[in-house]
Specification:
Strand content: 15-25%
Radius of gyration: 22 Å
CATH architecture of the largest domain: 3-Layer(aba) Sandwich
Distance between the termini: 45 Å
Number of domains: 2
CATH class of the largest domain: Alpha Beta
Shape: elongated
Helix content: 40-55%
Largest sheet: 7 strands, mixed
């Protein structure tokens, strides 16, 4: 099915900005023209593509087609570079799913090494970022483990180490008699969101029990560290974010030398892999500087 590139750019702009008006401003046309393009595209594919609301969001079909449009842009940009053509449309855009801790600890280093790309990052729990690839809503993702998503190349990057950390006053209050199944069941813990299983995974590995401690939900990597320092609760924090706080005594490990190691993988759609080769190279370089190398 051949789709009009103007219709595709209208769809992508709406989903990027959340409104027909903002999409019109980006594309230098009227909101009426944007509306007409979306209607024509919906008639062409025979399905609704936009949930009209505040903000506007994509239907499953709309999200899939928008990602297709971005993929085409990446391939066209690669062709233009190879033929030394002018890229009048500007840099290509790539949508990537990754965990918040990856962004907070090392991924920005990969982004700044990659030119001619605009990033659209989707933040999701590390156990769920691969789902975005399976649904066809992103072009690449940082995932857990080495199992490749169908149609993707999978590159092992290394291990992100998490340490169970809390403030010294919190330790004295909740773990004065040691870290055990009993104390862990009572001590408040920090959790990024309802998909975050790091704390419970560490508890199970340590005690052999599946516990349900009191939970603070706190969806911010840096806020997670700040909350632990303030004594709100204990949590699994990336080693790179807490090493200084541990060194100066603001945080301590619940149990020394009891980390939780999470293996990270870069997965990228096979068709797009050649076009995004510079990004993949930058991701591997940044990972090598910050992660524990693969065994």
């Amino acid at each position: 099915m051949l789709l009009d590139p103007h219709h595709l750019s209208a769809l992508a702009a709406i989903l990027r900005h959340g409104s027909f008006e903002a999409a019109a401003a980006e594309l230098s046309v009227t909101p009426s023209a944007i509306s007409q393009r979306i209607k024509a595209l919906e008639d062409r594919v025979g399905a609704a593509l936009i949930h009209r609301g505040t903000p506007c969001t994509g239907t499953p079909a709309g999200l899939r087609i928008a990602r297709h449009a971005e993929d085409i842009g990446l391939l066209e940009a690669k062709l233009a570079r190879e033929l030394t053509l002018d890229q009048r449309e500007g840099p290509a855009r790539v949508r990537i799913a990754l965990p918040a801790d990856t962004l907070a600890t090392w991924f920005i280093g990969a982004m700044v090494q990659t030119g001619d790309v605009l990033f659209d990052l989707v933040i999701d729990d590390q156990d769920h970022s691969a789902d975005w690839l399976r649904r066809g809503e992103v072009s690449a993702a940082i995932t857990v483990g080495g199992q490749a998503v169908t149609g993707c190349d999978a590159i092992t990057l290394g291990t992100l180490r998490y340490l169970p950390t809390a403030s010294p006053p919190f330790m004295r209050r909740w773990f004065s008699e040691g870290v055990s199944a009993r104390s862990l069941a009572c001590a408040p813990c920090l959790t990024f969101n309802r998909k975050d299983n790091l704390q419970k995974t560490w508890i199970t590995a340590l005690t052999g029990n599946r516990l349900s401690p009191p939970i603070h939900f706190l969806p911010s990597s840096t806020g997670f560290v700040d909350a632990a320092i303030a004594g709100m609760g204990w949590g699994m924090n990336p080693e790179g974010l807490v090493h200084q706080a541990i060194a100066d005594g603001r945080l301590c490990e619940l149990i020394p030398e009891a980390p939780l190691d999470i293996e990270l993988t870069w997965q990228i759609g096979r068709v797009l892999a050649p076009a995004l080769a510079p990004l993949t190279k930058a991701v591997r370089r940044a990972a090598a500087e910050h992660l524990i190398p693969p065994a």
